[in-house]
Design brief:
By secondary structure, the protein is of the alpha/beta class. Helix content is 39%, strand content 16%. The protein is built from 15 helices and 13 strands. It has helices spanning 38-47, 85-91, 110-124, 136-148, 163-171, 183-196, 209-214, 216-224, 242-255, 275-282, 308-317, 327-341, 347-361, 383-389, 400-406; strands at 5-9, 15-16, 32-36, 81-83, 95-100, 128-132, 151-157, 175-179, 200-202, 232-236, 264-270, 321-325, 370-375. The strands form 3 sheets. The protein has a 6-stranded mixed beta sheet with strand order 4-5-13-10-11-12, with helices on both faces. Strands 8-7-6-9 form a 4-stranded parallel beta sheet, sandwiched between helices. It has a 3-stranded antiparallel beta sheet with strand order 2-1-3. Strand 1 (5-9) and strand 2 form a beta hairpin. Helix 3 crosses helix 4. The radius of gyration is 21 Å and the shape is globular. It binds ligand F0G. Ligand F0G binds at residues 108, 133-137, 205, 236-242, 299-300, 346, 348-349, 376-377.
């Protein structure tokens, strides 16, 4: 069964036919969301309850695809939800989990969005897909475009994309364009290109189909916890679609009656790129862009997040909060997570643990909470950063006595 769905503007609430290729509201320019007939989904779930282990397409009843034969999948989702007892003790929180998105096919949560977005590209019949990216989006889009047989253009901020992500875009055969500017500028260029050129489909997260796939992070967390929703979900924020997507997932679960509530969505940004944290802390309606964002966490080195209005809604509507962390705090958390739990993540993902630590210390997160941190990307994405922050190897001659001296 396919539930009916449509575009809906988050600002003016007008609805639009999803057979139109839209990125933002044609009337007011607001961000679009995909909305469903949730009572039809609830009815369907009554007849055919969800079965089997978590994976993106297990929740296909909640996904906006009309022609299932066109689904482009690399078996994304179904990532581990690790119970982190040792880390919980270190941080001083009752129950802590890490949702490890680094286990996706291209090593980040972006694959969940791309399976839906690239399937949509096939449904629209386009020949070329494109994105701007801090790295992971381009790696993921390049892989799914290959699988679908589509041409792929990626615009990257020159010199600011981590090596692991760049090599992925290269090997999957994307056409890579290095922009002499930052991510925000690259995104403006590719958005214009896709609006003016009907044959190129934009697959940045302003495309409302992408967050639809990403909302399955919320579905999987709830599913694995036996439809018991955690108190809080902590997410790194860059272009700000993911925190919204996860919120939306929990919202839909509650609306269809599978769960009883929505966790407090808690967004973390880097100190040098924190427009949403500022807006939340100051109680602003709209955020003020940061002109020259800077952080070691290049994935979230974004000063003008296109989906900022969605992130602000997700945080406020769920009673959550936002916090920023320094590069030093990110590095410390990255090492801690790897060395206490054996979970290797890239810096943007470690920001969640750093943020949680700070919020616990300040008493803004309760020590009796059940918390999930979303670790968005694999440690291998940014090997240069790891080499910079790690102790080097001890070099010794091939001699047993010398070996004993250094251990
Ligand atoms: N974590 C990682 C590892 C990311 O790559 C990103 C975004 C985020 C968190 C933030 O997610 O943008 O939905 O708030 N990376 C994008 C990219 C911008 O181009 O790969 P968001």
């Amino acid at each position: 069964m396919m539930a009916d769905f449509w575009y809906q503007c988050i600002e003016c609430s007008r609805k639009f036919d999803p057979s139109r290729r839209l990125y933002t509201c044609p009337d007011c320019g607001g961000l679009l969301e995909i909305e469903f007939d949730l009572s039809a989904i609830a009815e369907e779930l009554g007849k055919h309850p969800l079965k089997g282990p978590p994976s993106v397409w297990k929740y296909g009843v909640f996904l906006p695809v009309r022609d299932r034969s066109k689904i482009v999948t690399l078996r994304e989702g179904g990532t581990p939800l690790y119970r982190c007892q040792r880390l919980a003790e270190r941080l001083g929180v009752r129950e802590l989990y890490v949702k490890y998105e680094g286990a996706n096919p291209t090593g980040s949560f972006k694959d969940r969005g791309m399976t839906v977005g690239v399937t949509r590209a096939l449904e629209y019949g386009v020949s070329t897909v494109a994105c701007a990216s801090t790295g992971n989006t381009s790696a993921s889009l390049a892989a799914y475009a290959s699988k679908a047989g589509l041409r792929c253009l990626v615009l990257l901020p020159k010199g600011k994309v981590a090596l692991g992500k760049l090599v992925q875009a290269m090997i999957y055969g994307a056409e890579i364009i290095a922009i002499e500017g930052n991510f925000d500028q690259a995104l403006q260029l590719v958005e214009r290109l896709c609006r003016e050129r009907g044959d190129i489909y934009l697959l940045n997260s302003v495309n409302p189909f992408r967050p639809q796939g990403q909302k399955t992070i919320g579905f999987e967390i709830a599913d694995e916890l036996g439809w018991e929703v955690p108190d809080r979900v902590v997410v790194p924020m860059g272009n700000c679609a993911n925190i919204w997507a996860i919120y939306k997932g929990f919202y839909e679960l509650r609306e269809v009656g599978l769960t009883g509530r929505i966790p407090r969505m808690t967004g973390i940004q880097a100190e040098g790129a924190k427009p949403i944290v500022e807006a939340i802390k100051k109680g602003l309606e709209r955020f003020v862009p940061v002109p020259n964002p800077e952080t070691i966490a290049t994935a979230i080195r974004i000063g003008n997040p296109v989906n900022g209005p969605k992130a602000i809604r997700a945080i406020r509507r769920s009673g959550g909060t936002a916090e920023s962390v320094t590069d030093e705090e990110i590095i410390e958390a990255q090492k801690l997570l790897a060395r206490v739990e054996g979970i290797g993540v890239e810096p943007a993902s470690a920001a969640t643990v750093a943020g949680l630590k700070k919020l616990l210390e300040r008493g803004e997160v309760g020590r009796d909470e059940r918390v999930v941190c979303v670790a968005t990307g694999n440690v291998l994405k940014d090997p240069d950063e790891v080499v910079r922050i790690s102790e080097g190897a001890k070099e010794v001659p091939a001699d047993y006595e010398k070996l004993l001296q250094v251990i």
